[in-house]
Amino acid sequence: MFGQTAPRAVVSLDGVEVTTASRTGWFFIGFDRDAPPITLLTVSRDGETFQHRITVAPGDFDIQRIDGLPADQVSPQDPALLARIGEEAKRKAIGFASLDDSDGFHHGFLPPLDGWRLSGRFGGQRILNGQPNRPHYGADLAAPTGTPVYAPAPGRVSFAETGLHFEGGLILIDHGQGVVSAYLHLSRIDVRTGQSVQPGQTIGAVGQEGRATGPHLCWRLKWRGRNLDPMLMLRNPL
After folding, report:
1. CB neighbours (10 Å) of residue 202?
2. Averaged over 186-194, what is the pLDDT?
3. If we measure between CA atoms, which residue out of 102, 103, 107, 187 comes closest to residue 144?
4. Pairing label, strands 48-55, 125-128
């Protein structure tokens, strides 16, 4: 959810400060897959405080079974590969921790593709090669390799690399307030870290690099460490 209040007001959830409203007053908060059913929103500025109790509806998550993956894409054992994965994780963490002082999220998102088939829903329990794995924190949008991928909203690229073990080509875009969208398995990257992007701008192309069994865009969204469903940000939900 997002809303508008006094510029630079402090926003808290359940007594914990989570963000500060932008210079135009916009703020964003997100609820992850296993959020509690009730949370208390508090907005404070210049001695004034507003509180609102929020009811969070439970999600509906399926079970996704994927077989035929290489063993090192499910349970990597090689020390050199594990070291590489660890270094990649550190670089990705920096990108996800980006906190741009902007509010490009507040008009919602445009679709990142012109057309797709939803091949994997957000939050589904993953069973990879018969082994239970962590939930899938993205929406899988199946489309042919080379299909252009677009920026869904204004933002700044906080990470852009190819050749990652799990993600292949990966782009992260910071839309402000810690709202970071992610684009995985790209066959091509057309932007660089630090670059500003606008809605509808081509940032890369669909591929099947990394842990993927076919061409698709795994589209993800994080807010200050919480995994969110990016499909909920679409201006015109499908």
Report:
1. 13
2. 98
3. 187
4. unpaired
**pLDDT mean across residues, the chain:** 93
Q: What is the layout of strands, in order, in the sheet containing 188-189?
A: 148-150, 202-205, 188-189
What secondary structure does DSSP assign to 169-227, as a single string? Answer: EEEEEE-STTEEEEEEEESEE---TT-EE-TT-EEEE-B--SS-SSSEEEEEEEETTEE
Domains identified in the chain and CATH numbers: 2-55 (no CATH), 63-233 (2.70.70.10)
Please give the DSSP secondary-structure letter assigned to residue 144.
-
> In the chain, what percentage of residues exceed pLDDT 90?
78
Strands 10-13 and 16-20: antiparallel
d(C-alpha 148, C-alpha 202), whole Å: 6
- Residue 149: CB atoms within 10 A of its CB come to 27
Per-residue pLDDT reduced to its tens digit, 221-232 = 999 999 999 999
Q: Look at strands 196-197 and 188-189 and give their pairing.
A: unpaired
**Which residue has 């059913």 as its token pair?**
37
Q: Per-residue pLDDT for 236 more than 90? A: no
pLDDT tens digits, residue range 15-35? 999 999 999 999 999 999 888
